[in-house]
TrEMBL record:
This is Uncharacterized protein. Residues 107-156 form the Antitoxin Xre/MbcA/ParS-like toxin-binding domain. NCBIfam families: TAS_TIGR02293 (TIGR02293). Residues 37-101 form the Antitoxin Xre-like helix-turn-helix domain. It holds the Pfam family Xre_MbcA_ParS_C. It comes from Mesorhizobium delmotii. GO terms for molecular function: DNA binding.
């Protein structure tokens, strides 16, 4: 039991970091205690204001083509949605927004600061065949490549 709790703590810390990027309990209207809580939230759709909060924190990532690649929403659709911030995102948009927040959180841990993480997402990466990590977020396979590469960077395995 104690071993399970110790193993769950890092996961819970990661969950809380992602939740904070999305506005925390103030915007999400609940505290996420487990991955199942996150799943339920995403099934019902993140509040549109969670995406607003996430994008409002970005410093270097351009909110144009990168937005579409990262969260699967065109800038025009995002602008239309701003008129209805309480309307939940679709399951797909919620899942992609959550995944983008997860990757941003992980990259922030790896690089030590969110500004550095954002710059890394926007620059071509040698380990990704000179592709920009943000561009790869458009597909599940690309997301997996970015996550694997971040993990290699975290542990000092660059090739």
């Amino acid at each position: 039991m104690a071993l399970e709790k110790a193993a769950a703590e890092p996961k819970n810390n990661e969950l809380q970091k992602v939740a904070r990027l999305l506005g925390g309990t103030r915007i999400l209207s609940r505290r996420l205690r487990s991955a199942l809580d996150a799943h339920e939230l995403l099934v019902h759709g993140l509040p549109g204001s969670a995406l607003d909060h996430l994008l409002g924190q970005l410093v270097f990532i351009q909110k144009t083509d990168s937005l579409e690649k990262a969260v699967g929403m065109s800038l025009r659709t995002y602008q239309r949605r701003k008129d209805a911030p309480s309307k939940p995102l679709s399951q797909d948009q919620s899942g992609r927004t959550w995944k983008f927040a997860e990757i941003l959180s992980k990259a922030t841990d790896v690089f030590g600061a969110q500004a550095e993480a954002e710059q890394w997402l926007e620059r071509p990466a040698i380990g990704l065949d000179q592709r920009r990590p943000i561009d790869l977020l458009a597909t599940p396979a690309g997301v997996e490549l970015v996550e694997d590469y971040l993990e290699r960077l975290e542990y000092g395995v660059y090739a």
